[in-house]
Design goal:
The protein is mainly beta and 183 residues long. Helix content is 9%, strand content 52%.
């Protein structure tokens, strides 16, 4: 099985947000949409965590294809956040609340006839005392991150039926198991 979910080290970085007070979100301007390209920065009172949705070479039906995946990393205290889009300054948006829990949505996509299984992280959800903020991936070749604040992220997350059709013209040949993992 191909596994491009968060590594254990990355899960520990995300879990370290629990109990911390959020300060801001930095990314490209969110005027018309609630999407940003490639990466964003979550700042708390004591740390900065970069969330990245970037394509990387991945085994894909016996070949190698660039498939996007979520990764995260902790920035050093004096390290500057750099957006994927060069020449633009990131906008800073307030994020409120103390983080109660961090959860990840993982999809396990299986195509038995083609002998292919892949597991992907599709969302990160911060549950705070001021409400939920979620960061969602789209389909497997898309590097956009959708930001959902003050509404139910489930309505913006690609449905299991959409994921099945992303992977095959015959959705009945694809099974998708979705799990919500609280860190």
């Amino acid at each position: 099985m191909v596994d491009i979910t968060f590594t254990e080290d990355m899960r520990q970085i995300l879990k370290s947000l629990v109990g911390q007070r959020l300060v801001s979100l930095e990314c490209e301007r969110l005027d018309r949409t609630q999407e940003t390209y490639g990466n964003l920065l979550i700042t708390t009172e004591s740390q900065k965590v970069e969330l990245i949705n970037e394509e990387e070479p991945t085994e894909y039906f016996g070949e190698v294809e660039d498939i996007s995946r979520f990764i995260c990393r902790r920035l050093e205290p004096n390290e500057e956040f750099r957006q994927f889009i060069t020449g633009t300054r990131p906008m800073k948006y307030p994020l409120l609340g103390k983080v109660n829990t961090v959860s990840i949505v993982n999809d396990h996509v299986s195509m038995p006839e083609k002998q292919y299984d892949i597991q992907l992280s599709m969302a990160v959800i911060l549950d705070t005392d001021a409400g939920e903020t979620a960061f969602l991936r789209g389909w497997h070749f898309d590097e956009m991150i959708t930001i959902v604040r003050k509404s139910d992220y489930r309505s913006s997350l690609r449905s299991v039926a959409q994921v099945q059709s992303d992977w095959s013209d015959d959705p009945s040949s694809v099974t998708v198991e979705r799990t919500l993992i609280e860190l």
